[in-house]
Amino acid sequence: MRIVLATRNAGKIAELRRILSGFDVVGLEEFPAIGEVAETGVTFEENALLKAHAVAKGSGLPAVADDSGLCVDVLNGMPGVFSARWAGSHGDDRANLDLLLAQISDVPAGKLSAHFACAAALALPSGEHRVVEGTLPGRLVTTPRGSNGFGYDPIFVPDGDERTTAEMPPEEKDAISHRGRAFRGLAPIVREVLGS
């Protein structure tokens, strides 16, 4: 059975293909008429569902989408759903990181708890849907370290580790990541709903 992942990111598509072996997972490059879906929700779940439903409707196939971000406790869970556009423009990792570091610059190290969160949604053309969430708890450091990963990875240290996620090899980070946890949690639901 064919499933559309609501992304043009080749890395995400490859990851979901590994998790959903037995399904024909394709990305949005197969459906050029489907444009970018505005993430107007105020939760990760809402944004994942917006994207999944739009892609299921536009493709006529089951669709999987996710939304994720960094939630900093001392900032009341922000940047949260605004993680990718925290500094104003979408996807400017350096500006987002610099702004967050400025906002936490006077916070004691022991108060920098945070977690990465991800909601992964499955939507069917019929309108039926399911959502699974994954989290990765940890803390922030104020000096970026590492060159792997992207976004806030250089300042995020998972619980039980001393390395930032940007200092971890990609396969090690994928094994514990919030997105990997959400997708792996969604996999049995996809198999149950779609019968494979």
Automatic annotation (TrEMBL):
InterPro entries to which the protein is assigned, alphabetical: dITP/XTP_pyrophosphatase (IPR020922), ITPase-like_fam (IPR029001), RdgB/HAM1 (IPR002637)
Cofactor note: Binds 1 Mg(2+) ion per subunit.
EC number: 3.6.1.66
GO cellular component terms, semicolon-separated: cytosol
EC top class named in words: hydrolase
One example of a Gene Ontology biological process annotation: purine nucleoside triphosphate catabolic process
Annotated binding of Mg(2+), by residue: D67
Active-site residues (renumbered): D67
Cofactor list: Mg(2+)
Keywords associated with the record: Hydrolase, Magnesium, Metal-binding, Nucleotide metabolism, Nucleotide-binding
SUPFAM superfamilies: ITPase-like
Family in the record: Belongs to the HAM1 NTPase family.
Quaternary data: Homodimer.
Protein name, as recorded: dITP/XTP pyrophosphatase
